[in-house]
Amino acid sequence: MNTTRCLRFLLLAFAALAPSLAAQVVSPLRATTTPGGRFDQTIPFGQSAVGVRQQIHDDLRGQSLLVTALGFRRALAVDSAQARTLDLALDMGPGDFDQAGTSFTLNYTSPTAIQRVVARRTVAFPDWSTTPRSYPTPFDAGLVLDSPYLHSGNRALIWELHVFGNSLAGGSNAPNYIADAFRDEPSNAASGVQVGTGCMPTGSFVESMGLLTVFGDALPAPQWRVAPAITRGPRSQFATLFIGLQETRATLPGLCGEVYVGQPIAAFGGTTDQGGTFTPSPVTLLFDARLVGLPLVTQGVVADPGRTAGAPFSLSSGRRTVVQAPPVAPLRIASLTSAVSPLASTGNFRAFDGLVVEFR
After folding, report:
1. Residue ranges per domain, the chain?
2. Among 65, 89, 97, 264, which is least packed by CB within 10 angstroms?
3. How far apart are CA 52 and CA 336, in angstroms?
């Protein structure tokens, strides 16, 4: 009787859970109808005989999945991607996108959370050498799990593919097998345009320049980074960078050049290096949508003891730019790869980057 009740309870539990488990999901979601657009991802299917690729899908957090297979599709690139067989194994487990880094094991919540869902075996991958008639292409490459993997949705979903052998490997001349992929940029940057000309510092053959780059960052939260700089100024001399809200062209007695900054709102002091460059640390500001498009102008002033006429200073050219809006928040997917060994402990980490995957 107790056994019967237990079975009934389990059946009811699975029946309640089933509607919330997605049967087929493409990550990232936008790739369902749009190609990823990247075609430089050669690990783990490409030229190397061995390798490992880990991918962290934080976009699947909050979504329960019962994964029975992983599917991949070809990229837009036309390449000699003949059919091949891979000697591989696959692990899956929960992880944390915000704590991810260059260690394969540490990206999981714990080593014990790693599940071997495909035991090492040889898997055939189809021919991708014929140019497709349309994009995106079908998910016709992939592998079926030995047993389903239940993703609870509480954490990011990690899969890790170990390649122990590739039938068409052979270095740089070997045919590639490039799966569809994407890469998002977490920042918009505007370096602006030059305003006027700078003075010719004593002992130099090039005029001093002012630089200004404004970054609109999406992560860790919408914000701005303002990064001014002086280049080609007098060496090892005190320098000041001014930032203003208005471009002007004023001539002051004794100065070697024009003043381009009007309505100054900030100044940064320091010393130029042996190359005549002064680069203060970027300033981070809280994002305010009302300031998007606001013009900014910068100019540098550097002490120039060798100047015999007028004030002993050199002025840089100006730089005019506008405040940028942060990009739409990039997809929270990351990849970690190594072509050194299928059992590598560390690899090359890239945030907002990864293969397009169909979880079935």
Report:
1. 20-184+330-359, 187-322
2. 264
3. 8
